[in-house]
Amino acid sequence: MAKITYIEHNGTEHVVDVANGLTVMEGARDNNIPGIEADCGGACACSTCHVYVDPAWVEKLPKADDMEVDMLDFAFEPDMATSRLTCQIKVTDALDGLVVKLPEKQI
Q: Which residues form the 2Fe-2S ferredoxin-type domain (predicted)?
């Protein structure tokens, strides 16, 4: 299990425990975190679970694959250094303390 902090665009923080094996998107969905729409349900077929990963965590995460990178082109104001799709980040104990910030909106 990992404790993950989701920070809304307005600064509101949500710290939740997310079970190993779920994705960061599923953790947001299961805990009613506003700002993660996840329209495709985690199939990496949209960009509505886009977040900005805290810079301290960027290098600790597995690299985005080509499909995720392509989908990020459709996200609202992507930052290629910190933007990720939460449906593509599997939760493990190693992610305990992960901090992600939500964009102003999802498109």
A: 2-106
